[in-house]
Task: structure prediction
Amino acid sequence: MARLGRKLGLVLLILTFALYVLRIVEPHIPLESLPQYWTLPVDQYLAATGLPSGWGWIAHIHRGDMLNFAGVAILASITLICFVRLACGYLRTGDLLFAALAITEICVLALAAIGVAGH
Amino acid sequence: MLGIVAVLAGVGGGVLFVPIVSGFFPFHLDFVRGAGLLLALCGALSAGPALLSGGMASLRLALPFALVGSITSIFGAMIGLALPADVVQTALGATIFAIVILMLRAKRSEFPEGHLPDRIAVSLGLGGRFHDPASGRTVDWKVHRSMAGFFTFAGIGLLAGMFGLGAGWANVPALNLLMGVPLKVSVATSSFMLSIIDTSAAWVYLNRGAVLPMLTVPSIIGVMLGARIGARLLRVTRAATIRRMVIGLLLLAGARALLKGLGIWA
Result:
């Protein structure tokens, strides 16, 4: 599953990045004005560009730069998906201690992913 | 280039990427750290499945310690994003120097022996049998100093989240030297742990908006391509030469981070 997710995420990253830099899909921040924003701290960058934080990029997925987050999100989700499978395996074998550890890890990763942990 | 050098030197991409890119390129440190974590994560995801299926990595060993590291890496990311950039840059410089000292001084023990497993390790069932095809030896390995291991991985997670460095540089010494795990099992397990520890911190950076596609995507693709080239060059390159080169690069990048953070070399 990790192999498949990594390949899918990478292919998506390459494709969406090509669409972005070749200007096939117009970005939210024009490429020529990007250097004036990438020197800013993240809070100022978001305020200056009007970009959303969290999962707000989904609403802007039709923009070339935001489209890249689809591949990034897939790559960042692989560990979580693998842990769901792992927890099921531990439960099946009756290894309750390690099933509990795997479920705790799922909760930690899910809280980080939905933006509850870290805000 | 970073991907090639990282593989040849046996360090993760993040530990080279963050100090070099934040020191010598115009991107703000927030974006560099976000990219560094995703870079380290992708590298670990590439190696992880093969190491697990090859029987080198111990999932049972990784899980409890990586859980602690993944929790503290969230706090590290929050602290790193809350602190002023010059403070983080200065602390990054100091951390890079500490990593260089660790690389220079830490001895590696191929098959640590003569220790008894502690109570935590026994109750968690940490240990196993490892066959090393290179030496032809089969070793029954066990873990000691588990509590110290938990504290160490809490610290590793905090630093990984704060500086976006990944965690491979610290995982191997912690598993091998502190906890008595054979070197090859430590290296393989470290890669798996890195993907767990970095993922939670990477989500914090992603959710805060600190991921810049123009920096992150080419870096991930470049480092992964470089890692493939590096793996081929591994057979014909002298490890000691590469190691000296990496230490030199880290010293330069660490000095730059320190001086930039202190406002001496802006």
